[in-house]
Amino acid sequence: MTDSSINFGIIPTSCNQNGTCTASSFEIAEDWIKLFLLRNASADLSTMARKQFDDFSRLSKQMYDSIIGTNDPDLSAFKSRGGKLVGYHGIVSYMNNAFRFSDTNL
After folding, report:
1. pLDDT digits over 12-27, tens only?
2. Statement: residue 97 has pLDDT above 70
3. DSSP string, 45-61
4. Closest to 16 (Cα-Cα) out of 27, 24, 4, 8
């Protein structure tokens, strides 16, 4: 790879001519960690290793799963109250994953 920007998963990555690749900033993940987990907007994440990222991932689930978790796809009560669901997915954007409506129980 030579002087290119590529996308490994969701982290924008730039590679130079010698094959060394570095990850660019992924602001949504950084903001989540700084604001919602550490509650410190000026926290320095520049030296964060994979283990720390994995620890933050587990902490996110512990702290916020009861509020924003999606383990229960049963929307029958929502439907019975006349609720309508509009879904969007973008396959090209690394920010959006394909949403499968078959995963919900209406």
Report:
1. 677 788 877 777 777 8
2. no
3. -TT--HHHHHHHHHHHH
4. 4
